[in-house]
Amino acid sequence: MSRFVFISLALVAALLAVDYYVYRHWRRYVRLRSQHHSGIRSLRWTLPLYQVLMPLMAVSMPVYFAFSNWWEVEPKLARALFMGIWVTYYLPKALLALALPVKDGIRFVIWLFGWFQERLLAPAEVPASAPAEGPAEVPAPAPTPTAEARLDLSDMKRMRRREFVQRLGWSAATVPFVVVGYGVFKSLYDFQVFRVDVPIRDLPRALDGLTVAQLSDLHAGSFFSERPMHEAVSIVESLRPDLIAITGDFVNHDADELPLILPALNRLRAPLGVYGCPGNHDHYARIEDVVRGVRSTPVDLLVNQHRTLRVDGARLHVIGTDNTGFRQRYADLPGALDGLQADPHGEEVRLLLAHDPTFWDAHVRPGFPEIDLMLCGHTHGGQIGFEVGPLRWGLARVAYERWAGLYAEARATGAGRQFLYVNRGAGTVGPPLRLGIRPEITLLTLRRA
Q: Where are the alpha helices (DSSP H) in 269-386?
């Protein structure tokens, strides 16, 4: 709880700092421009009005929805409008807060060079010569050089560059409308296939090369039609995996969202089967209805249960737990393993499906070193971030150490390593937006190490 409060307070402080920083620059910008254009002075109060009216609109919307019953009639549209207002409110300021420091940096460099020139590069005094006959001429006092004059940066068109950066910063305020539109209508359902090799020590040769396709965090309520889920299933079918795993969060808030994904789930087939586990959002809905709906498809939803599959003499144990994470404690891993028959020759692999990545460090690693690989989701990769070669960062990194991709740690006992894979999810929570973190379909291949 203390971690949640700390993150919330830090986020509020950061947003207030952005508000203050942008407002100060806006006032200065209007003041300077109003010296040449008197009509601009009236714009001074447009940003404060914007800062007051937009949050007021966002706060008043739930009240309107409550009295109009719109939240129940059109819940997806209501949530999209509510989150869209906040995204539109802060995203322009965030871009300005990134652009304006460039201008401030240029101003600081100009001041710093001027300071050094004035104190360290001042011309040396010339010794006085013998006085000449006649009246002495009194030299006119030299004008005090300004920072701009001292630097003599006219050839660099200093002022034009500063004005360009400043105008570029304010022009960037229009970019979010284009960026958000791209995030909603293009990258939101632009599924990316991640191909990952998992090197397991002493993997049975019969399982070497076995493939698992993973989906996670479908969040049916985030889809506006059945089409995105059908596209995801078509991609999975093209991969031809040996086994399919879905690691929780089939819905956002209500089991009534399931019809958006059930037709696509009914298409899923794999030689070794299709398996799943519940997520935290499935408990926000009526969990019994979610379980019943998912199990009406080929998906074998494992709720603290396991299945043992035989592959050419080797055993593949697929284990699924209910969710354990923030404010939820439904997982029973010992119960899920109850009755599991280990292979007497060690020709086996144990694959765990559990929704929340924190379950791996809190329970699996310290108490269950026999688990070879855990598949999870939950973080969505933060939905906003960047992944460029080895460089990657998502908003989920603020709250989760293991937020996306493959992780490995030495087993608490025994040789070899345990592996965790965190899927970036297929759907969304909060704003229907993905920027830099595309929805994911994973194809994991088990390799003998």
A: 280-284, 287-295, 333-337, 358-359, 365-367
Q: Do residue 372 and residue 402 come from a single domain?
A: yes
In one-letter notation, the amino acid at residue 416 is G
Rounded to 5°, the CA angle 420-443-437 comes to 75
Range of the domain at 47: 2-115+162-181
Q: Which of 99-113, 225-239, 317-331, 341-355 bottoms out in mean pLDDT, i.e. has the lowest? A: 99-113
- For the entire predicted model, the pTM comes to 0.67
Kindly give, in sequence order, each residue whose CB lies less than 8 Å from that of residue 203, ignoring residues fewer than 6 positions away: 349, 446, 447, 448, 449
Which residues sit opposite 328 in a β-bridge? Answer: 325
Q: Is 354 helix (H, G, I), strand (E, B) or coil?
A: coil
Distance of CA 276 to the CA centre of its chain: 24
23 domain-assigned? yes
Q: Report the 3 state secondary structure along 60-77.
A: HHHHHHHHHCHHHHCHHH
Of residues 331, 439, 431, 435, the one with CA closest to residue 58: 431
Lowest mean pLDDT among 93-102, 397-406, 417-426: 93-102
Least confident of 78-87, 237-246, 321-330, 378-387: 78-87
Number of other CB atoms surrounding residue 198 within 10 Å? 21
In a domain, 56, yes or no: yes
- On the question of pLDDT at 192 being above 60, the answer is yes
**Is residue 12 packed enough to be buried (19+ CB in 10 Å), middle (13-18) or exposed (0-12)?**
exposed
CA geometry: angle at 407 spanning 325 and 4, to 5°?
30
Q: Give yes or no: residues 232 and 329 share one domain.
A: yes
Same domain, 220 and 368: yes
Tell me the per-residue pLDDT of 8-31, one tens digit each, with 9 for 90 and over. Answer: 677 777 777 777 777 777 677 667
Buried b (16+ CB within 10 A) or exposed e, 201-221: eebbebbeebbbbbbbbbbbb
